[in-house]
Design brief:
7 helices; 9% strand; 136 residues; single chain; Arc Repressor Mutant, subunit A
Length: 136
């Protein structure tokens, strides 16, 4: 007879005695699950490097990888270029609306300041969103 260990719902260690055959089958099953588990690399790399920050641990990326840093920088530059192109398409009134929205003003506050109705401001917002969506 062989002892095997489990953790119950209260995360307490539970010991069960089983035959050698059952223990060997359980070991094979656990190894197969671990080998196919997507978290294997995460735990192995974390143990080996030990220097991942919270962001890296959560998303499984390593900021020290130069290639990934370059790809991220290119992605940011591409998004910035698209955003600037979209901003150039806006009319002065739309641009003023974007600035007010960025400042945290509500639709009601913006409508009062621009002397127009809330539905008009909502329509302007939708038009601006379409412009941004066409570029992004």
């Amino acid at each position: 007879m062989t002892k095997i260990y489990f953790k119950n719902a209260q995360v307490q260690k539970v010991v069960v005695e089983v035959t050698e055959e059952v223990a060997a089958g359980l070991k094979e099953t656990r190894n197969a699950i671990w080998a196919n588990d997507a978290y294997e690399d995460y735990y192995r790399d974390r143990e080996l490097s030990g220097n991942l920050n919270d962001k890296d641990a959560e998303f499984g990326n390593d900021d020290s990888n130069p290639e990934m840093m370059m790809v991220a920088a290119e992605d940011i530059a591409d998004r910035r270029a698209k955003l600037l192109a979209a901003l150039k398409e806006l009319t002065p009134k739309q641009l003023r609306l974007v600035k007010m929205l960025k400042a945290g003003m509500s639709v009601t506050e913006i409508a009062a300041r621009l002397n127009c109705s809330k539905p008009t401001i909502s329509k302007m917002k939708k038009a601006i969103q379409k412009i941004f969506e066409s570029f992004l």
